[in-house]
Amino acid sequence: MSTTDLTTWSLMVRIYAESCCPSEATDVFREIQARGMRPNTVTIMNLLLVCAQLKNAYSIFQSDGHRDLVMFTAMPDHVFITTLLTACCHAGLIQDGLQILDSIRTVYCMKPTMEQYGSVVDLLARGVQLDDAYIFATEMLVGPNANIWGTLSRACTTYNRIDLGAQLQIIFCKVNLKTQGTMFWSCFDLLKALCHQMKEPVAF
């Protein structure tokens, strides 16, 4: 097989992953690394299928003493990290996602992007850890954008968290909505409808 045919190698990783053969998939991934090829986002996403089976994505990327599987070393850019965080969201790998976010600053000396912060909020919300998602959003180094508020708003509606929705409403009331986009208005309306279920809804 040609060493340059990354598509074929990536397909092998996926086939093994979908066949519930995580060890074989990981071996193929190691071979990709050994041949000096640079895994792309498709390869990474396929490997995350394996991570979902092993329930430990972070350990795969930090696996051996030589760190030959540390993908951040091979691809230390925000595109890769965002892809990995997004994959953790879909795989439900909460702890792995949090470790990956922490490594952005502590290991790779980069600042997380708004999109990466949003991925972590989404990760926590999908895991029904809405209180943690709220605390994370309000303690971010940069102010949350409308997409992050939207993620929290939708999660409050999905899981009927009227109490948390009311807290978000109070925050929204302090924001000049005239300067915000349609996403912010949608969040505001969504929470207003949710909080009408309360005996004493927040006044506007």
UniProtKB/TrEMBL annotation:
Record bears the keyword Repeat: yes
PPR repeat feature ranges: 5-39
Keywords per UniProt: Repeat
Pfam families according to UniProt: PPR (PF01535)
GO terms of molecular function: RNA binding
UniProt entry tagged with the keyword Magnesium: no
InterPro entries, alphabetized: PPR_At4g14850-like_plant (IPR046960), PPR_rpt (IPR002885), TPR-like_helical_dom_sf (IPR011990)
Lineage top rank: taxon: Eukaryota
GO biological process: RNA modification
PANTHER family for this protein: PENTATRICOPEPTIDE REPEAT-CONTAINING PROTEIN (PTHR47926), TETRATRICOPEPTIDE-LIKE HELICAL DOMAIN SUPERFAMILY (PTHR47926:SF481)
Protein name: Pentatricopeptide repeat-containing protein
Organism encoding this protein: Brassica carinata (Ethiopian mustard)
